[in-house]
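Q: How would the structure tokens look for this protein?
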Amino acid sequence: MDPISPLEQALHAARALVLADLAAGEVAAADVVSMVEDSVVQRRWWVEQWPDGVAFVAGLVAQDVQDSLLERYGRWPLCPVCGTGDPHALEVEPELGPDPHWVCHKAGVKVAAVGALGSATGGASSS
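A: Here is the predicted structure in token form.
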């Protein structure tokens, strides 16, 4: 059995983290999971071109899926911190860096690490 390359490990981890956040928000329908897969394919090529970017894959996949969901369905994930005002989506920070988190810019707080959104929302729907 061949060992799994660091690139494949990072891609599998990114997929799992984003799927966990989608499941926490109860938006992991088949077409949404396909968005994750499309992003993973694109990011595989991206990291093959820039191997130093392997640590950034999870945040980039999360951003890709967030952008795809916005185009098709609306904002995701909605902020669980701000109880009043217009609903708004969390953002991934850093935009290009390791250890990505979902952040509410309105309240100025880190809400959860990418992959741990369920702990911040209590597993409730964020869509």
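Strands lie at 91-93, 101-104, 109-113.

The two ends are 41 Å apart (CA to CA).

Upvote if useful.
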